[in-house]
Amino acid sequence: MTAGPSAAGRGAGAEVLVVCTGNVCRSPAAERLLRHRLPAESGIRVSSAGTRALVGRPMDPPMAALVGQAGAGSGEFTARAMSPVLVRDADLVLVMMRAQRSVVVAAEPRAVRRTFLLTELAVLADLVAAAGWPVDVGADPADRLRALPALAPAHRAALQRTELPGGGADPDVVDPFGRPAEVYERSMATISAAVDLLVAALA
Amino acid sequence: MELRRFLTLLRHHLVGIVISLVVCGVAAFALSSSTTPTYRSTAALFVSLQNGDSASDLAQGANYTRDQMASYATLATTPAVLQPVVDELALPGTARDLAHRVTAVAPNDTVVLEVSVADPSPEAAARIADAIAEQLIVVLGDVAPRGESGDATVRVSEVTPAEVPRFQTSPNTKTDLAVGLLLGLVVGVLYAVLRETLDTRVRDVSRVEAVTDAPVLGAVPRLPGESGHLLALADDPRGGLAEVFRQLSTNVEFLRVGDAPVSLLVTSSLPGEGKSTVAANLALALAEVGHRVVLVDADLRRPSVAQRLGLEGEAGLSTVLLGRVEYEDVRQEWGGSGLHVLTAGAIPPNPVQLLSSSRMADLMSTLESRYDVVVVDSAPVLPVTDALVLSRHATGTLLVVNSRALRRAQLTETLRRLDHPGTRLLGVVVNQLSDCSAVHGYDAYRAADQAPAPGRRSTWWRVPGWVRSPRRSADGTPVAPASETSGPAPTGRTTTGAMSPADRGAPVR
């Protein structure tokens, strides 16, 4: 039932890898929002990568603007490619779409139990928190995050009956790249709602 | 064909029969209404012989006349009689045409000659009949033998002049409609019998039982409007369909000898018969009652377990068989009952090779050592050999039969292929049944919360719970609801479930 490499003990922090396609829109936004909304001393390190990353590019300006409006847009950003090593080192891999989950798992099959859709993990974490965190899991957000891959599957049946962040039944976060401002806003709203749900569940 | 089967047949094809009835009835009515009405008018002539006055003369004369009546009747439709009538009344057509509308008979050996004429106009019918009668008198006078005095010996007189008819003689709409409806009924029933005879699909449990000794372990009703993504055990755990799968899992539990682990291969004859639905629900039902269960998606051609459960399918069986990872690395978990799932993994180009490899055999023995029950979802039997290869590794095989899609010949062929030394067919699950009452015990089922109270007989006319008034004890005070559940265990686990509308699954999100 061991999840990631750093599941060794309490207080060891946690690594979260956020993955999307280009690593210029959705995954950087989710990365920034998570980092901004998680408690500063949580010990959870968030990074991002792309399955077909526009390596070296900065964040897509419309998305960067939305992240800035949310108060989470600090610092430079450079897109990088997803690699099996990055996946292996992560306690939790969060993807935006099912197709990306397949690419991640094909690259690193052992990550199959640690790789989740952002929207689904947010709901699963919420269901885990609602059912009560087990006593043997530390109250630290990082400890809880590392325990999620083992605790979440029990709630998959309920997940199928629960409305996902962003509304509706589609677990995928829409790709806004090169599309109208309205799609960027919709994408950002889904990511933001999912991050809020996840952060609240870990608290 | 026994009466019950015949009635069932009629019920199944009721729509066709009704359509046939309506079409034939309407056609008969329309045909009848569009026919030009015909009126018939009749005149009667009395024929006698004038030959002496003695009684014997009269008797002889009467005999002679009777002998001649048929000839006189024939005479009425000859041009000799009709041509003058045509000329006199200026009728359209020839005397021969008129002859078709004229009948002349001498009823019952009498000397009365009845001449009747059919015509679209009642007045014309009467007029023509009278004219023929008059002309017949003239012609009979001419052709009759002459007496000694030179007078005609036959005397003819019109006794009943033709009357203008008040009612049409044809068409008779009521009779025509009755004939049309009868014809419709015959055609409809014939259609139903033909359809049934020519229908080669499995349709019901009895036809499965007719071709195999393997027991029918489950009967799954057809749910109108539901997709193939049913996970009844998770979506609607208290519903009737979930109960059907629990019953199936109970039957499977009986197949375990002692506590020996079993591996069950779930397959079907063709794709789309519901084997993955049955496999997933069966695995969930077994896990629910505390067994350690793993569901393996070994359909490496069209895998569906991962998508159905919302899991990632890219790492799984094929990944293990290729030696990239260990089983423990890629097995996933689903739901509160701790069901383990090994998805299919990436679709390989050579499924048979992988499935017949020693790694597969090793994996199966590993799984059997770790779990109570291994449920293996496999590709269908008829298109590919995967299932037959896999069945060698499994304790037994469950065959899912879609009663609405599979033909009897295909089922027979599947059973022939499964009749193989390495394969043990444990039972059949009949899916998509439209008439589940055919399965014994079906009607008796009620969900646990609606189970009949002790001493009450289960009857078909029982009203739903919300209609029933609170039960009262002998002194008239309401009995606490708790007593409803204090009796013997409800029978839901040991009988097969029938669906009520309320039981049908809630939609998946």
Describe this structure in words.
The complex is a heterodimer of chains A (203) and B (509). Chain A has one domain: Rossmann fold. Helices cover 43% and strands 10% of the residues of chain A. A four-stranded parallel beta sheet of chain A has the order 2-1-3-4, sandwiched between helices. The longest helix of chain A has 22 residues, at 181-202. Chain A is α/β, with parallel strands linked by helices and 203 residues long. The model of chain B is unreliable at 437-509 (pLDDT under 50). Chain B is built from 18 helices and twelve strands. Chain B is rod-shaped, with a radius of gyration of 42 Å. The two termini of chain B are 47 Å apart. In chain B, helix 2 packs antiparallel against helix 7. Chain B has an eight-stranded mixed beta sheet with strand order 5-12-11-6-10-7-9-8, sandwiched between helices. Classes of the chains: A alpha/beta (203), B alpha/beta (509). The interface between A and B is medium-sized, with 25 and 27 residues.
Any chance you could write out the topology, listing elements then pairs?
The complex is a heterodimer of chains A (203) and B (509).
Chain A: E1 14-20, H1 26-37, E2 44-50, H2 61-69, H3 84-89, E3 92-95, H4 98-107, E4 115-117, H5 118-131, H6 141-151, H7 156-159, H8 181-202
Helix pairs in contact in A: 1-8, 2-8, 5-8
Chain B: H1 3-12, H2 14-34, E1 39-49, H3 55-75, H4 79-89, H5 95-99, E2 102-105, E3 112-119, H6 122-143, E4 154-160, H7 173-198, H8 205-211, E5 216-221, H9 232-235, H10 240-255, E6 262-268, H11 275-288, E7 293-298, H12 305-309, H13 317-321, H14 327-330, E8 332-334, E9 339-342, H15 351-355, H16 358-370, E10 373-378, H17 386-391, E11 396-402, H18 408-418, E12 425-433
Parallel strand pairs in B: 5-12, 6-10, 6-11, 7-9, 7-10, 11-12
Antiparallel strand pairs in B: 1-3, 1-4, 2-3, 8-9
